Amino acid sequence: MKSTYNINKKRLLPMASGIANLPLRTLRLNTLQLTNKTLWLIAFLLVSAVTSAQEKISLEKAIELAKSNNIDLKIADKEIEKQTVLKKTAFQPEPLEVQYQGGQFNSADYDHNVSIQQYFPMGNITKANRQLQEELAKLAEKQKALSSYDIEKAVTLAYYQYLYGISIQKLNAELNEIYTKFLKNAELRFQTGESGNIEVISAKAKVKEIETQKAQLEYDLAIYQKQLQFFIQTDENVVPDDKTVLQYSMVKEVGNSKIEGLMTDYYEQQISVYQKEANTHKAMRTPKLGVGYFAQTIDTKGLYQGFTAGLQIPLFGGVNTAKAQASAISISQSQLALDKNKLRLNLQKQELQNNFAKQQKSLDYYQTEGLQYANQIINTAQKSYANGDMSYWSYISFLNQAIDIKKQYAEATHNFNQSAIELQFPTIKNN
C-alpha cells in the first residue's frame, strides 16, 4: 500500500551552485518558492478544515453507534415486534356465519329465516398456537443477536483497517524526513564537488515519489473511512481515534465461546419452533364446536326462535398429519446443521489459532529486533554518508534495507490485527 505525508516543495528546488549564482535564476527560484509556500498553506488550511469536521471515536463507541443505527438490527427489532403482535392470533375461531332464507319453504306463504352460526376451536389448538408464536418471537431475538455479532466484527475490522492506513501515513512522513536529509547532504556534496549530480537527481525523484504517494494514501483513507461509516450507518464523518494503540488487544477465550453460544442458541431455538409447529399441526386434527341461533316465521305468522349446536370433525386429517411429520424432519435438519457448524467452528478455531500464532511470531520479531535494526541502520548510514565515510550506492542500499524492514513491520502489525480479530470473531453460517 502506498502512502505519504505533506512534503515541503521548497526543498525540491535545484541548488547547483553555478546556476544559483545568477540573479535572474535566483529571482525565479524565490518566486517559485513563494508560490509553493502559498499553495501548501492553502492545502494545509483545507485539510485542517476537513479534519476538524471529523469526529474521532473509540472502538467501543463505534460499535455502540453501529448497533443503535444499523438498519438490519432495526429490521430485526421489527421482526421481534411482529412476532410478539402475532401472539394475539393464537385464538382462531371460524368466521361468523350469518344466513338469511326467504321464500315458500313452509307453505305457499312467503316466510323468512335468519340464522347465525359460530364455530370455536377445541382442545389445545389455542395453546399450541400461542406457544408457537412465543417461540418464533424468541427465534427473531436469536437472529438479531447473530446479526449484532456480525456487525461488531465488521466495525472492528474497518476500524483497524483505517488505523493501518494511518500507520502507513506516519511511515511515509518518516521516509519524507529521511530523504529530505539525504537531499540536503547530496546537494552539499555536489556543491563541494565530492559527488556527482546523480545523487541529487535520485534524492529529488524519491521525494517526488513520496509526494505523489500522499494523494494515493488520502484516497485510501477516504475509502477506509467510508467503509467504517457504512457499518456505523451515520451521516457524520466519524474516524477512529488516532491515539488508539495500533496493535489489537484480543479478549482471551471470549470470542469463540460467545459465537458458539450464539450459534447453539439459534439452532436450539429453531428446533423448539419446529417442535411447537408440529404440536400445532397435531392439534388442528381436533374437532371444532359450533353454536348457533335462528329465527323464522311459519305461514308468515309469529316468530319462532331456537338454538343449534354442532361439531366440525376433520375426517380427512392426513394433511395435518403430513405437516406434523414434515416439522419433525425439520427438527432433524436443524440438529444436523448445529452439529455441522460446531464441527466447522472447531476446525476454524484451530486454523485461526495457527495463523494467529504465526502472525504473533512475526510481529514479535519486528518489535523486539527488526525495528531496532532498521533505526540503527538509518542513523548509522546517515552519519556515515554525511561524513563522507560511505559511498552513495552503499548509502542507498542500506537505506532501502531499513525502509523495507519498517514497511514489513507495518504489514506485520496489520496482519496480526486481522488474524486476532478473526480469532476473536469466527465466522459462522446460520443455514
Could you describe the 3D structure shown?
The longest helix is centred in the C-terminal third of the chain and has 69 residues, at 318-386. The chain is an alpha+beta fold and 431 residues long. Helix content is 68%, strand content 11%. It has a four-stranded antiparallel β-sheet with strand order 2-3-5-6, with no helix packed on it. A two-stranded parallel ribbon has the order 1-4. Helix 3 (59-69) packs across helix 5 (125-191). The chain is elongated, with a radius of gyration of 39 Å.
Low-pLDDT runs of 5+ residues are 1-52
Number of helices: 9
- What does the overall shape look like? elongated
Strand residues, percent: 5-15%
Q: Residue-averaged pLDDT, rounded? A: 83
Main-sheet strand order equals 2-3-5-6
What about the largest sheet? Answer: 4 strands, antiparallel
Distance between the termini: 37 Å
User: Which sequence of SSEs, written as H and E, runs from N to C?
Assistant: HHEHHEEHHEHEEHH
